[in-house]
Design brief:
10 strands, NADH Oxidase, 4-stranded antiparallel β-sheet, 2 domains
């Protein structure tokens, strides 16, 4: 049933999942008619609090396997390891014959992050209900915001959080460690971020090269340029069809993987509807980080992040007892972003 060739095809589908900063923290191994899924610790972001984004990314990869398998008339059942052993083996995807084809399987290769402007036309309630239906029964929460005031508030909070990544040295160093400036760096690593996929103009790439030096970045920050850039990036949040918050029901690897599966299912459904999505993970990550390890921030940043807690949950009031994972900007766009071509090859993510 699970031939070697089919295993490779399913691994290819899994590898097309979104991951935080394109770190692709997954590995796979074939065991009979099952696929074992592992977390590659060497591709977990150093500042990723409790490896939250790594587990979310792995969950998205698992969901791609589930969806892709249906195109081969196979049903995929996901079994998670116990919390005590999840670092050794995250999950097992068992395959069995099925007659149901998931209509989303054809959209896996077309799913993309679109950083371009979206129409400022709210998504209709029937469409939102359709997305809720496609994720019904999945073990994570989804919460929607469509009003102008909510979008404006989120844009302000995102701007206030994003510049911290440039001003706080551990976050700054991590960012420039995963940015790929040359094609040689791309081919050598095959993970991380390219300026093409981020749609950064060539003149800005030159500036970015200088910002990788902490002394330069620190001087620029004192001039307030980092905050100006952050506001400009966050301004796109003011125009969208909707914002969707994906939450975990618990704060552990299994719950985060479930949130990742839910996010990817929703993303594929949105792609099938002709909609675009851009993920915003900075604020959910910082809200989590300031609760678990506040000592990693300077006190002034702790105060800023904590001040966002009340307005954030005023936008998504039903999520107060849940754990924020990712905010998705959803809407219609006239232009698509360039799809990142940095992907690890199957032989690099398959365990023998």
């Amino acid at each position: 049933m699970l031939t070697d060739q089919l295993f490779i095809e399913l691994v290819k589908a899994a590898s097309l999942a979104p991951s935080a900063d394109n770190m692709q923290p997954w590995e796979f191994r074939k065991q009979g008619d099952a696929i074992e899924v592992f977390c590659s610790k060497r591709r977990v972001l150093p500042t990723d609090v409790i490896s939250m984004f790594a587990w979310v990314s792995i969950g998205a990869a698992i969901q791609n396997i589930v969806v892709a398998a249906s195109a081969y008339r196979l049903m995929a059942t996901v079994e998670y390891s116990t919390l005590e052993h999840v670092d050794e083996l995250a999950a097992i995807v068992r395959l069995s014959p099925s007659c149901v084809d998931n209509r989303l399987s054809g959209w896996i290769a077309l799913r993309n992050t679109n950083r371009n402007p979206y129409e400022a036309l709210p998504l209709s309630q029937p469409l939102i209900s359709k997305f809720e239906k496609c994720t019904f029964g999945m073990n994570a929460g989804i919460h929607w915001a469509t009003t102008t005031s909510d979008l404006d508030c989120m844009a302000l909070m995102d701007a206030n959080s994003t510049y911290i990544r440039l001003e706080h040295k551990p976050l700054h160093d991590e960012l420039f460690d995963i940015l790929r400036f040359t094609r040689k760096e791309v081919e050598t690593t095959r993970y991380g971020l390219t300026f093409e996929s981020l749609e950064v103009p060539s003149v800005a790439v030159f500036v970015a090269r200088q910002l990788q030096y902490w002394s330069v970045s620190k001087a620029i920050s004192k001039l307030g340029i980092g905050r100006i850039v952050a506001k400009r990036l966050a301004s796109k949040l003011r125009k969208a069809g909707a914002l969707c918050l994906v939450t975990a029901y618990q704060r552990n690897p299994i719950a985060y993987m479930e949130a990742g599966r839910t996010m990817e299912q929703l993303w594929l459904a949105a792609t099938a509807e002709g909609l675009s999505i851009q993920p915003y993970g900075v604020l959910p990550q910082y809200l989590t980080k300031v609760e678990i390890e506040p000592e990693t921030f300077l006190l002034k940043y702790v105060a800023i992040i904590k001040s966002h807690c009340e307005p954030f949950f005023s936008i998504f009031p039903k999520a107060k007892k849940e754990y924020p994972v990712i905010v998705l900007r959803v809407g219609r766009a006239d232009k698509q972003s360039v799809r990142s071509d940095i992907r690890l090859r199957p032989d690099q993510i398959i365990r023998r």
